[in-house]
């Protein structure tokens, strides 16, 4: 279906891919995994022809169509929702544009041409395109009344859904997606998981989301050592078997037959578990052909994330009173009163992610509330990891100069001092001198974390901290927050993170606050709280 041969990619001295040859076959879903900065996004851009490799070729079987989930959410702002979806099938959309233009300039000469084009259009099932697109949109929860709305007037979450419909429109033979779950809400992620699990064509998707990878992948494609290796099975299988491979390698003296037996036993157990699980789709037949030959121990490294505090905060941490916020007249939350105690680690939760983001933007002074006040204790200092970090990277500073922007003393301005923080986040040697605008998504977050570590605040504010990070970084981050002695306010879709860090849950609703000292699971499982939550969101709806 799609193949690459002798592909090499190099940036300066850094070799991302070294003579890679591989094939992606019909019917499979490949989950591309690899450390932050290993070259996943670069690889997808090469597949789709957006950038050229240093050497080597990409070959798509003739007559096959590839589509890519657009990451720039504002690219189609001047088009209507329905048109944006139709544009997902470029050939068809171009045909239609040509036909429309010829009609507009109608002449005898054009009649014949129109006829020809219409035959092609019909062959591509063009007449049904609009109703297909409309059905796709409705499936994704975009109501008919919005199908002719301009993209720029849609809210962020809905835009992502439209772009998803665009990518899926017309059943592409190869579908390419780079971290699709980052910008999606929980319900749309579930919908997408279901859709992809039953999709017959070739899917190539980059993700750091374990749950998502397990739900959709028939193969894991690991990028490591400048190569790409495919392994049958989902993420859990890859992970468990690579751990097993590493263990076996450590036990040099173990006999070959014993190792083989252990492997077979492992596969047997694993396959049985998968067959019993609820997602028994056609994809899962793949499991019969599991192989774990040649799994190498990974070269991934754990960053050292350690948050220290310049000083301990006093007893006054944060007081919020009567806070409310809205977007374009739509209420996000109101009547929010919070008294934060020393050491509290709080999951700030809302069904509407715009509400939590607005909350952080307000208490960090970046945006104004509609009503209400907030006051930080005078001994507190805050450092903030915003959801959108793009404005920090809108420059060409080297990473050393980039981080120096937040140095406050002579000592902190020294290159060795700054390199200490960059090194903890695995930017060492020449890596620390690359410019901030070429960074991968995860590398940007690692820079933001270096910045936070250098600020040594006693309050950490984190809006979706695990977005873009690889699993090694997420684990290191999670542990550091468990050990942190100051306060943390955070919002995350990563269940493990929420459950292991927080001792308190605060939910922001259009009708006030729910505030409980308990773990995230206790909160979510509590029947009374669930009833209360439903009521709180329903009242203003
Ligand atoms: N134009 C460039 N010049 C120099 N280095 C570059 C350039 N473009 C990308 N890089 C580097 O290439 C590496 C791979 O980037 P890429 O975005 O493909 O990573 P990724 O695997 O998608 O990472 P993430 O998981 O963080 O999204 C990164 O280290 C990045 O800084
Ligand atoms: Mg990437």
Structural notes for this entry:
This protein has 541 residues and is of the alpha/beta class. It has four domains: 1-64 and 173-294, Rossmann fold (3-Layer(aba) Sandwich); 73-155, no CATH class; 301-381 and 456-541, 3-Layer(aba) Sandwich (Rossmann fold); 396-452, no CATH class. It is 39% helix and 21% strand. It has 19 helices and 18 strands. It has helices at 40-47, 81-86, 90-104, 108-123, 129-139, 156-168, 186-197, 210-216, 235-250, 256-276, 353-363, 399-404, 410-413, 415-424, 441-455, 471-483, 495-501, 520-525, 527-538, and strands at 2-11, 14-24, 29-33, 55-60, 66-68, 174-178, 202-206, 219-224, 227-232, 318-327, 330-340, 345-349, 371-376, 382-385, 459-463, 487-491, 504-509, 512-516. It has a six-stranded mixed sheet with strand order 5-6-7-3-8-9, with helices on both faces. Strands 14-15-16-12-17-18 form a six-stranded mixed sheet, sandwiched between helices. The protein is globular, with a radius of gyration of 26 Å. 37% of the residues are buried. It binds adenosine-5'-triphosphate (ATP) and magnesium ion. Adenosine-5'-triphosphate binds at residues 11, 16, 34, 36-42, 434, 438-443, 468, 470.
């Amino acid at each position: 279906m799609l193949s690459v041969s002798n592909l090499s990619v190099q940036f300066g001295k850094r070799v991302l891919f070294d003579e890679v040859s591989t094939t992606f076959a019909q019917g499979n879903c490949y989950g591309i995994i690899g450390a932050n900065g290993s070259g996943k996004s670069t690889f997808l851009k090469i597949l789709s022809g957006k950038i050229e490799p240093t050497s080597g070729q990409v070959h798509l079987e003739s007559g096959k169509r590839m589509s890519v989930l657009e990451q720039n959410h504002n690219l189609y702002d001047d088009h209507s929702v329905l048109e944006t979806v139709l544009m997902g099938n470029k050939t068809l959309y171009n045909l239609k544009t040509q036909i429309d233009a010829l009609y507009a300039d109608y002449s005898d000469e054009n009649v014949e041409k129109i006829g020809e084009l219409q035959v092609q259009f019909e062959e591509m099932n063009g007449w049904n395109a609009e109703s297909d697109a409309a059905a796709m949109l409705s499936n994704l929860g975009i109501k008919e009344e919005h199908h002719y709305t301009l993209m720029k007037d849609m809210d962020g979450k809905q835009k992502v859904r439209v772009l998803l419909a665009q990518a899926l429109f017309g059943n592409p033979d190869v579908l390419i997606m780079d971290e699709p779950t980052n910008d999606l809400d929980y319900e749309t992620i579930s919908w997408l998981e279901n859709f992809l699990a039953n999709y017959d064509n070739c899917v190539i998707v980059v993700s750091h989301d374990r749950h998502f990878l397990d739900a959709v992948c028939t193969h894991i494609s690991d990028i490591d050592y400048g190569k790409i290796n495919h392994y049958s099975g989902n993420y859990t299988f890859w992970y468990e078997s690579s751990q097993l491979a590493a263990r076996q390698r450590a036990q040099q003296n173990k006999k070959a037959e014993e190792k083989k037996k252990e492997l077979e036993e492992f596969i047997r157990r694993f396959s049985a578990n998968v067959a019993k699980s609820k997602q028994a789709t056609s994809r899962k037949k793949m499991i019969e052909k599991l192989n774990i030959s040649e799994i190498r121990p990974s070269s991934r490294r754990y960053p050292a994330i350690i948050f220290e505090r310049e000083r301990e905060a006093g007893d006054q941490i944060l007081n919020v009173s009567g806070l409310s916020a809205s977007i374009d007249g739509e209420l996000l939350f109101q009547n929010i009163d919070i008294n934060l105690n020393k050491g509290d680690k709080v999951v700030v939760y809302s069904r509407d992610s715009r509400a939590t983001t607005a909350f952080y933007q307000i208490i960090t002074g970046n945006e104004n509330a509609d009503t209400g006040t907030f006051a930080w204790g005078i001994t507190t200092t805050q450092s903030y990891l915003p959801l959108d970090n793009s404005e920090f990277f809108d420059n060409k500073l080297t990473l050393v100069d980039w981080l120096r922007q937040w140095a406050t003393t002579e000592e902190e301005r020294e290159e060795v001092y700054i390199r200490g923080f960059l090194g903890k986040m695995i930017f060492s040697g020449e890596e620390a001198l690359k410019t901030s605008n070429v960074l991968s998504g995860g590398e940007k977050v690692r820079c933001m974390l270096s910045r936070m570590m250098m600020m040594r605040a006693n309050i950490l504010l984190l809006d979706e901290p695990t977005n873009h990070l690889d699993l090694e970084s997420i684990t290191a981050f999670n542990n550091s927050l468990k050990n942190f002695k100051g306060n943390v306010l955070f919002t995350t879709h990563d269940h493990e993170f929420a459950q292991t860090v927080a001792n308190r849950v605060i939910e922001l609703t259009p009708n006030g606050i729910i505030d409980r000292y308990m773990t995230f699971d206790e909160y979510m499982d509590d029947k009374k709280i669930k009833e209360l939550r439903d009521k709180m969101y329903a009242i203003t709806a």
